[in-house]
Structures are given as structure tokens and as C-alpha cells.
UniProtKB/TrEMBL annotation:
GO function terms (MF aspect): phosphoric diester hydrolase activity
Species this protein is from: Devosia crocina
Xref: Gene3D superfamilies: Phosphatidylinositol (PI) phosphodiesterase
Pfam families with a match to the protein in the record: GDPD (PF03009)
GO biological process: lipid metabolic process
UniProt-recorded name of the protein: Glycerophosphoryl diester phosphodiesterase
Amino acid sequence: MTDPLFIERAGHRTWLKWHRGRRRASDPAFSGTRITEAMRLGASVEVDLVIHADHGFAILHNLTLEEETTGTGRVRDTDGRTLRQLQLRGNDGAPIAERVMLLEDLCALLAEQKPHPEALLQLDFKEDLAALSPEIVHNFAVTVSPVARSIILSGADPSANRLLTQSAPLARIGYDPCYGPSLDRLHQTGDYQAFISDALAPAPDAAFIYLAHEIVLAAQDSGFDIVAPIHAAGRKVDAWTIRTVDGTTLPQVERLLALKVDQITTDDPEGLHRALVA
């Protein structure tokens, strides 16, 4: 079986990003086994970062523990030792053998099991600038710097992204504008050109702009190619998130491929690759 890394159409390569470390839909989120597999193969893979009580980061999506782990309460109020003892939950909500990782655990794995040169680990910071203290920023730098060449930091707050990546200069930076005032204006006006201008301005160093795939396709339906001006600005486009592979999503993916997005975030890279390449 060919590893689900990318799809090529008309000479353009679109990477399949393993959302929350999943290779296939049945995989649990944030499995260290899957994440290191992805990085060894040269995949693009995404995990989330949430601040914990010891001024570091847990590899989790939610700000509270109940849904994703066997713990309870806020991640921000839970120390790293306690987090490491918690089991992750699978897609059915049942505990699995793998435990919660901290960012330093994941970076240690990457330092030990050298990533493929093309592998890219997206760290998606789920909070904002107000959540960052000097100690948190320092700990991020110490943790990420040894593997920073394989890292891209993303999030919805460009100021937070910039502060963290400045502390680890070899890490790349990305920006997701699909939240907040810019998105509100887009819903009110339908002005996709203004939306993209708003997206590019606050993140001049962003290598990737992350766009909800629904926005990309709605723009096309309105006669506007939202990908082209981002490419013209020297950035790449990630379209997120294709959660299932079925008769509804496959035509959407074909449209995204025709628009030459650079990356598609999906919960089922293997299933999507099989459907489009086999």
C-alpha cells in the first residue's frame, strides 16, 4: 500500500495532512505512535497545543480534559505529571492504552527518531496572546528548538504565533483567519478579496494560510478563486478539514485539487488517498 502523503493533479502536488495525527478514520487522536510514523514517512501532520499548569503545553485540543482523556477539569489547572498519567480516549470515548503527551515528550520522540526531511509537524496553538507568559514562551523555545526545522506553528492569533516562533527562529509560522472579526465581515459582506487581504496583512511571515474548505468552495461558487491571491503573495494554502470520505466529500476534494490548494487536512488520509489514487 502506498503511504497516504499527497495527491498529484496536473503537475501540482497537494499534501494530505494527518489531522490530529490520524492516518485513518479509526485512529485515535494524538497517538504518539501514529505521529512518529507520519514524521518518519515524510507526511504533514497536525497536533494541538493547550497550556498546562507547569507553564508548558499538552498535546490536546480542548481546554478541559473530560472529552479527550480520563481526567477532569481544566488543562490549565493540571500539572504535567498528572497529565502524563491520563489515558487518551478513542473515537468511541473509551480509554486507550496511550497516554497524554506533553510537547517535550513529542519533541523528544522526534529528536530520537529523526523525521524525514520533508515531514512537517504543525503545532496548532488553541489559545491566544493573553495566555502566554515569559516562562511559557521560554519553555516553548527550549522544547522546540532542537527539532524546529520540522515544525510549523499555527493558530488564530498572529501575535501569539509570532511571539512563540521568534523564540524558536527555525520554526515556520502559519495563520488561520477563519475566526474572529475577519470571518464576521466575510459573512456580512461576501467580500472574499477583502477577507484575503485581512488574512495576509497581520501575518506577513506566514508560510501557510489555513482556510476552512467550506470558505474556499463558497468563494469559488461566487466566482472568486481564493487560492490564487495567496499563491501570488508567496504563501501556501491548507484547506481544512475533510472528516469523512464519501459521496459528498470526494467531489469537494476534487474541486480543492483543481484549485491547487497545497494541503488538505483530513481525518482519513488513507481513505482519501485510496479513493483518489487507487
